[in-house]
Design goal:
The complex is a heterodimer of chains A (117) and B (111). By secondary structure, chain A is mostly beta strands. Chain A is built from no helices and eleven strands. Chain A starts with a strand and ends with a strand. Chain B is mainly β. Chain B is built from no helices and nine strands. The chains are: A mainly beta (117), B mainly beta (111).
Chain lengths: 117, 111
């Protein structure tokens, strides 16, 4: 398998502040990483696709100026939630794609629980 | 991205084989079928992936009929720790692999 880590695992911030979440592929290089959001009792919703060295591609309805994504290296992508509000409280999950034995598998991080007060 | 439909939930007794179905009527020629497992407050975990017929690994089997409009994930002899949400996803295995998660199937294993 392959390992993806996220930091922090939990974060509480005040309304109006910004929060950065890191996603790292620990034992493989991920040219593409993905960011998802998951509200309680709901499925994962894809927010954006992050490509190393280029701008992220956002899904419809996701504000790119609010959710800043940077993919500076093949092992690190960051998501910054700017001017966070309570409705941004959610579980944020990243994933990295790895080609392996003819298939393309996507490995997910453990998630980051964001609570905005 | 092809849409998938799964039962919302199902219960099973410990030690039994569990078969989880998924419908994907609009699957495209270059789409693969991938199954993930998710425990509460954790990221999804890859279980198995297949294109047609049958695929088996150390944790599960995946059955895909000839028309590929559905698939069945089979978990042999489930234990309490298999209680989770299981997602079926369909998409091309090349390219940027955007994945669209459906509602998933909550499987509860009962002692």
């Amino acid at each position: 398998g392959a390992v993806v880590s996220q930091h922090p695992s939990r974060v509480i911030c005040k309304s109006g502040t910004s929060v950065k979440i890191e996603c790292r592929s620990l034992d493989f290089q991920a040219t593409t990483m993905f960011w998802y959001r998951q509200f309680p009792k709901q499925s994962l919703m894809l927010m954006a696709t992050s490509n190393e060295g280029s701008k992220a591609t956002y899904e419809q309805g996701v504000e790119k100026d609010k959710f800043l994504i940077n993919h500076a290296s093949l092992t690190l992508s960051t998501l910054t939630v700017t001017s966070a509000h309570p409705e941004d409280s959610s579980f944020y999950i990243c994933s990295g794609g790895k080609r392996q034995q003819g298939s393309y598998e996507q490995y997910f991080g453990p998630g980051t629980r964001l609570t905005v007060t | 991205l092809a849409k998938t439909t799964q039962p919302i939930s199902m219960d099973s007794y410990e030690g039994q084989e569990v078969n989880i179905t998924c419908s994907h009527n609009n699957i495209a020629t270059n789409d693969y079928i991938t199954w993930y497992q998710q425990f509460p407050s954790q990221g999804p975990r890859f279980i198995i992936q297949g294109y047609k017929t049958k695929v088996t690994n150390e944790v599960a089997s995946l059955f895909i009929p000839a028309d590929r409009k559905s698939s069945t994930l089979s978990l042999p002899r489930v234990s309490l720790s298999d209680t989770a949400v299981y997602y079926c996803l369909v998409g091309p295995f090349r390219g940027n692999n955007r994945l669209a998660f459906g509602k998933g199937n909550q499987v509860v294993v009962i002692p």
